[in-house]
Amino acid sequence: MVARVIPVDTFDLVIFGGTGDLARRKILPGLFRRFLAGQMPDGSRIIGAARSDLDDAAYQSMISDAIDEFGGPEKDDKEGRKAFLACLGYVQIDAKGTDGWKDLAKLIRENVVQAFYFSVAPSLFGDLAERLMKHKIATPHSRVVVEKPFGRDLESAKALNKTLATHFDESQIYRIDHYLGKETVQNLMAVRFGNVLFEPLWNNHYVDHIQITVAETVGVGGRGAYYDRSGAMRDMVQNHLMQLLCLIAMEPPSQFGADAVRDEKLKVIRALQPIEPHHIVRGQYDAGADTASYREDAENPRSFTESFIAMKTHISNWRWSGVPFYLRTGKRMKARSSEITVVFQSLGHSIFEGEESLPNILSIHLQPNEGMDLQVTIKEPGPGGMRLVSVPLDMTFADALGDSDIEVTDAYERLIMDVIRGNQTLFMRGDEVEAAWAWTDPIIAGWEARNDVPKTYEPGSTGPEDALMLLHRDGRKWREVKG
Ligand code: NAP
Known about the structure:
The chain has helices at 21-36, 56-70, 78-85, 101-107, 125-134, 154-167, 183-194, 224-228, 231-249, 258-271, 294-297, 397-401, 404-408, 411-421, 430-450, 465-472, and strands spanning 11-16, 45-50, 88-92, 113-118, 143-146, 173-175, 207-215, 280-285, 308-313, 325-330, 337-344, 361-367, 371-379, 388-396, 455-457. It is of the alpha/beta class. The strands form two sheets. The protein has a nine-stranded mixed sheet, with helices on both faces. Strands 3-2-1-4-5-6 form a six-stranded parallel sheet, sandwiched between helices. Strand 13 and strand 14 form a beta hairpin. The radius of gyration is 24 Å and the shape is globular. 41% of the residues are buried. NADP nicotinamide-adenine-dinucleotide phosphate binds at residues 16-23, 50-52, 93-96, 119-122, 124, 147-149.
């Protein structure tokens, strides 16, 4: 099946922080792939903006190097690369200064889609927004893309929202959570709301519990100092895991539109119960044979920051009352794997003598291989009576659809194209972010008040022993973490 490339309008995309890690690793290689896919109309331009002293040619050369490093198989398309680089320009600009803004103003056209990507520290958002308005570069139709972290607590998130709202309408603001751009995450909605099979069962009458795991094998390495001020709760749970939880738990929106979907997600966050302290396990990875401990990586021998967290939470509404949601994320774990699992209830009675009824389990894999499988019960093949066995009905998208474009389309590419299209469905709204912090803040404050010390865990494991107990106590077990 050939992927449909939906055309977008001609655009000017300015990437503030265009020389930074994110721009070189994700944003520009992603745009290069969209260019090759024919999704960048003639006349569209990408303008890098940062303080470094570069001209257009030097910037194009920097991005060409980035494509070599991060561009994937498409980097071998020399002609395509040359044509793409010709669309790139650069403006030397200081977000806090005066230089460069007039140059940028001259470059930006009014009759095309204008998007400004703030790929810089959040402390610069206000400076950028203010100068974009002062120099009459942004218009009421411009779009602004902002990166995570969106605040470090409710107060700072409110302040950031207020800063952006001073200059832009909410309909112009695109808060990125790249998890929402993943093919599987969108497919989760297609599966739930596009099939008769699942939605009738998607509630506390049929679902036993839900697990969300985001496991990484890497440590905090180069970003230890930054991470140590944030931890797994702020870095992963408040945004990525919370968004996944919302999509799995939300009520069907009346239509797949930005506000309809975001209204439903917001209701889920607001219905989250506060978590009991004994329903949370925090961990810190220990040193391995040839890997440093968390505290060494963070260069903080007395750090109490968690590199792992597991928790049990509930959603107080009719659909989910009594159904536990178990969330878990950590660094230096056994495998790199992100998965959402819906474990359905077992049948109350088995007609097959001596055979227990096995639960159906729907697993949605976000990485490494995006896809889904549904465990169903069948008869074990062969003679010897009626023995039951659980087998997966596998639906790895790339295999099922046979389209390499679907396999490689990165979340960033998809989300940037949504910005150009003006579709905010997969971006977080300001009130959602604030509600997520309002739930997270008291949990973190509780740890701080108690001087809670995270448990250490072996690198390459599935986290501290207590995390296993969290489910064992409920007569359940975590899904295996496998890459
Ligand atoms: P980075 O590598 O430190 O890059 C920062 C960029 O901002 C550089 O291009 C820098 O260029 C520019 N910059 C700094 N001060 C400036 C100023 N006063 N005026 C204009 N430009 C300025 O950071 P990054 O990793 O790319 O991250 C950028 C943002 O994305 C951050 O908010 C980060 O939290 C977020 N993020 C990053 C990742 C990632 O994987 N890297 C993932 C998720 C979110 P000059 O020094 O040339 O000015």
